[in-house]
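seq as requested:
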Amino acid sequence: MASRVATAVRQAATLARLSSAKPSPQSANLIQRRGLAGAAGHGPPRVNVWEDPMSPSKWKEEHFVIVSLSGWGLLFFGGYKFFTRGKKDKEEGLKPSLASVNDKKYRVKFFAWMSWWLYKLAEASH
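C-alpha cells:
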C-alpha cells in the first residue's frame, strides 16, 4: 500500500513539474520534435532546369517530372505522326514533292536528336 501511495505522489509531482510554466531539463526530453520534417540542408542543392539543362540529377523533382512527361509525350506523338503520315488515299498518283522529301529528312534528324537526349537523360539519372 505504501508503495502505491509513493508511486502516486511521484506521478503527481512529475505531472506538476511538466505542467509548470518554466521547462526543466527533464521535461525537455519529453517535448516532441519534428524530426526530418523540413530536411533542410540534406543532399545536393537542387537547381532549375534552365540553369543546368544537361544535369538532370541536379534538377528539382517537379521540373524533372515535367520535362520527362513532355519528352515522352513528344516521343509518342512524334512516332504516331511519323508512322501514320503517308497512309493517305493512293488515288492521287502524284510523285512526292521536294517538301515531303525534306520533311522526312528533318523527321529522321529529330528522332536521332530525341533518342540522343533521352540516352543522356537516362545516363545522368543513374
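The radius of gyration is 33 Å.
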